[in-house]
Specification:
It is a single chain. This protein is of the alpha/beta class. The chain contains 16 helices and 13 strands. It has 2 domains: 192 residues, Glycogen Phosphorylase B (Rossmann fold, 3-Layer(aba) Sandwich); 164 residues, Rossmann fold (3-Layer(aba) Sandwich), CATH 3.40.50.2000. Helix 1 runs parallel beside helix 2 and helix 9 runs parallel beside helix 10. The chain starts with a strand and ends in a 16-residue tail after the last helix. 49% of the residues are buried. Bound molecules: uridine-diphosphate-N-acetylglucosamine and uridine-5'-diphosphate (UDP). The site of uridine-5'-diphosphate has 16 residues, from helix 1, helix 11 and helix 12.
């Protein structure tokens, strides 16, 4: 008998990280795969569905301009109920920490459907940072039957909360699986603005005449004053260093776009684009001297390319990158953003210590470990794949 697995996701990062897993489930002789998208994001989700050629079985199409958290939560729960009754899956998979993740898990729980949580166990232990992601991820913990922790640190967090060890599988992060074939030396950018730029190559990104900084800032806790400070710090840096160019693919959220265009628009070395197709984005960061971001996923991707990352947040649930050394947490103060970026442009020794090309988040085989654990759970296999081993941090 094949077991029915439904993957539910709704935003860009969930889709990027679930795509390799959906493909691995489809390849399993013991499982059937279905996909439901909430479309908490619309255009930014569709970009990823197109790239990975995923055709959802159901699309809840919930996105509204400037949607509130309550709207997302209630619409997902209301719209998912009938669909889950019709599909009657054995297992529902959710990913990470979005409001789609939490609401879908709650909806599955109401119908006594087993839940698998991919990218489980990351914590800052501060319920407002990141907001609301810390609690979204945390609340799925007690609802889930299977926990796919990307690292042993995440597993330890779950153990601390009383989750049974036999329900936790350390798999690595599927985001590393998605990077395998993305970056190529002769890559042709699809985005017309990027295609027209003279960007550094993979081999001369640290020595090129123009140093490329990729910027991506969008999180709720940075809206308003913190975001203005971050952008002002960057503007000061670019005005001082004539050999620096910034590319910022601006999130579609109006709260981000208004601030970005107000402070960084109309500058000849600051290029604001629409959100990029994911392969374009991977090839952009791989050609960058430095990445400045509040994104979770980008913190996990950049170490694969040995590109230093400055994280403009007060706290991160991804400490492995800090310990490994490619990532530095610098807060949201304008002067600190300017000073820390400046140091990386001028202090070669510091820059070289942050350039380690070694990803602590995975080895590219997370999806197959997750499928193996699901097959084991349903009795198709004696033992799951061995845990992904990272040095404990
Ligand atoms: C969401 C997640 C966040 C994740 C981010 C990834 C929650 C609460 N937040 O935040 O964890 O880091 O996605 O990008 O789950 N919009 C569009 N088109 C799109 C996408 C968004 O127009 O394709 C606009 C809409 O006006 C929408 C707004 O952006 O209302 C905000 O989207 P929302 O999903 O609520 O929040 P994000 O900040 O994107
Ligand atoms: N990304 C993308 N296009 C862009 C910017 C980012 O495809 O213009 C990808 C990036 O490679 C990473 C993911 O989006 O895989 C991160 O998503 P996001 O920053 O929106 O959310 P977070 O990870 O912070 O939840």
């Amino acid at each position: 008998m094949k077991h029915r697995v439904v993957s539910v996701f709704g935003t860009r990062p969930e889709a990027i990280k679930m795509a390799p897993l959906v493909s691995a489930i489809e390849s399993s002789p013991n499982l059937t795969s279905s996909v439901v998208v909430t479309a908490q994001h619309r255009e930014m989700l569709d970009q990823v569905l197109d790239l990975f050629k995923i055709e959802p079985d159901y699309d809840l199409d919930i996105m509204k301009t400037r949607q509130s958290l309550s709207e997302i939560t209630s619409n997902v729960i209301l719209k998912l109920e009938q669909i889950l009754q019709d599909m009657n899956p054995h297992l529902l998979l959710v990913h990470g920490d979005t409001t789609t993740t939490f609401a879908s898990a709650l909806s599955a729980y109401y119908q006594k459907i087993s839940i698998g949580h991919v990218e489980a166990g990351l914590r800052t232990w501060d319920k407002y940072a990141p907001f609301p992601e810390e609690m979204n991820r945390n609340l799925v913990g007690p609802l889930a039957d299977l926990h796919f922790a990307p690292t042993s640190k995440a597993k330890n967090n779950l153990l601390t909360e009383g989750i049974s060890e036999n329900k936790i599988f350390v798999t690595g992060n599927t985001v590393v699986d998605a990077l395998k074939t993305s970056v190529q030396p002769q890559y042709q950018f699809q985005d017309p603005k990027l295609a027209s730029l003279d960007l550094p190559s993979l081999s001369n990104r640290t020595t090129a005449n123009k140093k490329l900084i990729t910027l991506e800032v969008h999180r709720r806790e940075n809206w308003g004053a913190p975001m203005k400070n971050i952008f002002k710090g960057i503007k000061k840096l670019v005005d001082e260093f004539q050999d620096v160019m910034v590319v910022f693919p601006v999130h579609r959220n109006p709260a981000v776009r208004e601030t970005a265009y107000e402070i960084l628009g109309n500058h000849d070395r600051i290029i604001l684009t629409d959100p990029l197709p994911t392969r374009d984005f991977h090839n952009l960061i791989a050609r960058s001297y430095l990445v400045l971001t509040d994104s979770g996923g980008i913190q996990e991707e950049a170490p694969s390319f040995g590109v230093p990352v400055l994280v403009v947040r007060e706290k991160t649930e991804r400490e492995e990158g800090l310990k490994q050394g490619t990532v530095m947490l610098i807060g949201r103060e304008q002067e600190r953003i300017y000073q820390e970026s400046k140091k990386l442009l001028t202090d070669k020794e510091l820059y070289e210590t942050m350039r380690k090309q070694d990803n602590p988040y995975g080895d590219g085989f997370a999806s197959s470990r997750i499928v193996s654990a699901i097959e084991h759970y349903y009795g198709h296999k004696d033992a799951p794949e061995p845990d992904y081993k990272v040095s404990p941090v």
